[in-house]
Amino acid sequence: MQRYFAPLALIAFLVLTVAAQQPTPTPSGEDAVRISTDLIQIDVTVTDKNGRVVGGLNAEDFEIFENGEKQAISHFSFISKTAGGVSAADAPAAGQGQINPVTTLKRSDVRRTIAIVLDDLNLSFGSVYYTRKALKRFVDEQMDPNDLVAIIRTGGGVGALQQFTSDKRMLHAAIDKIRWNPRGAGGFDSLTSVGQSPEDITDRFKTESDLVASKAGQDDSNRKSILTRENVSDKKRTDYNVSKNAGEQEEGIFAQASLGTIRYIIGGMDELPGRKVMMLFSDGLLIGNDSNKSRGGAVYTYLQNLVDYANRSSVVVYTFDTKGMRSMSIGASDSTYEIIDGHRGSKERERLDDFKKSQDGLVYVAEQTGGKALLNSDNLNGGIGRALEEQAGYYLLAYLPNEETFNAEKRRFNKLEVKVRRPGLNVTHRSGFFNIDSNTAAKPQLSVDQTIAKALMSPFAHSDIALEMNALYANDEKDGPYIRSFLHIDAKSLTFTDDPEGWKKATFDVSAVTFGDNGMPVENTGSKYTIKTKGATYQTMLDRGFVYVLIMPVKKPGLYQYRVALRDADSGKIGSASQIVEVPDLSKRKMVLSSPAVEDVSMATWQNIAQGKIGNGPGQIKVASTLLYDTVLKQFPAGTVLRYGLEIYNVRSGKQTLETQARIFQNDRVVVEGNVNKLNPPEQPSPIRRLSGAIMLKDTLQPGDYVLHLTVRDDSSKQAATQILPFEIVKWK
Fold this sequence. Notes:
This protein has 733 residues and is of the alpha+beta class. It has three domains: 1-21 and 442-583, Sandwich (Immunoglobulin-like), CATH 2.60.40; 30-97 and 108-192 and 254-330 and 338-440, Rossmann fold, CATH 3.40.50.410; 589-733, abc- transporter (atp binding component) like domain (Coagulation Factor XIII, Chain A, domain 1, Distorted Sandwich). Helices cover 26% and strands 31% of the residues. The protein is built from 13 helices and 32 strands. Helix 1 packs across helix 10 and helix 2 packs antiparallel against helix 3 (168-176). The two termini are 39 Å apart.
């Protein structure tokens, strides 16, 4: 029975339920922050004067205060996030163009979880350019292979949790989509214009002209100077104030929209383990001023709720003012009338005041969540590096709250302060928490489809059911591109029941979804399947598992996160897997290869195949194919032959001969180099060619990870195309 579900609706539902779920109060580094009636646990970063994390402190070096009262530290630990004992600054960066493909990180492998948020609702045209440039450098030079990263725009459709990846191709695709948002609050320039409106200028000229005419021929020693906007009539002044406040209200609306998106993202990060980092890039968040109290109050309330939610979700926020170091001087884009008027100084002070106000929200969010705000700097990557360095390690401090901590009648907010007794050290921590017990919210019960959708959203694999996957791209001349995924399922993880006829039966739900570079679901499919087996087949299935094939059509080219989740109908156990799949744009008429399928055979079997002795014909030897297992498991012993097959698309002429070559890499080094072979044209010209071949896995290859590298060249059109397949050399069983 085929069953489809709507990931968009389910993901929207899960965002709401995730926000309501709260952790249980057990001291642990898995969750850096715990706020409950029986435990308060917070994360604290200690750095030296150079900004490097300081380890080696003990509980006696700290003092923690709640609302000014010293608390007894009941739990203390240091959580190290260094990779192999080196700090973030010393860790080698993974470069682009590497032969070895990126593998999906396990939960235990994640070193840092980083959400990079582009506030394109409040980014100017120039800020977008420099921010995009800084993010490309971060991905190429500063990102660690064990970092889990998402790049999200506040003005675009966002899928928060499902965007986290360690694959740099997906991150570069997200960066390439960053554009200036003309519908946002960010203008062409990040600085506010200081020129007057045409009506003000007309009124000013008329007033000054009348004044000069009335004073003609008189002593001007008592003449009163005209200050900025002093000559404007009361109505004009009122109109100006209304216009200015309307502009600030509009900025407040965009600020609330951005903060709503940021809270959504934090809701997704709450599902991830340990301490998380958010880097927010914006031209500013205007909290408000005395002339705009209603909107300012709303933004400030949003900020307070966001900070409390971030603190409870163990998210540290670093903010970056993308305006950078700017001069407040009058420029070419400003009204030249102001220069003539001679009030340059007052206009520049007005601009500076607006500039500082725009930074208030960024400073507030960073300081209240234990992060830092990078202001007045053109070196965005320097700030990113500082933020990454501070994630090398942190301390967990916990204490037992008293009965007044959660007494709503006494206070609404509990202020925290942490001090380090050793001199010369800096400490950053969260500002406090509202008196709400995190354990009061009950976890909602999820339906079957909701449980599967939640597994599909997670960047980590669920392993209650052992599931291996290899998703292959291919293209059908009639139906277009599709993804064929081979799923190897551990049968011992499923629940088999006996029916009256002696059959063993197991039922499972399987669903797949593709996520685009903005984290939103694009295509999905799902079904319910029942296995019936018995006897030796059942035992073989338990011993070897079995392969299930799932096909999903893909309508548009692009780079996708392809995720599959499988749920045992009886036990409710979940298994999931994910893979990055690129669907090329065949309309560009470039030569493209499908993903390869492979089969490993012994040397003796390969010799029989070469001699035509293997097959289903009379007198031929019948050998069971292991193609399904080999394509998905990709584990082969040395001293065997690896067969491969794929399709070639967009061959410009059906008559030319193509050159093909297979090579095997290990750590960017060729360890086996196959011959350059000729692929002759078929009898009937076709834009699709089929390639099959084999390469020997030398018996000198040691157990470890390798990559099969297949290349096809068309000298007539000067084109070449490549596909790779990662695999593992294992010992003979």
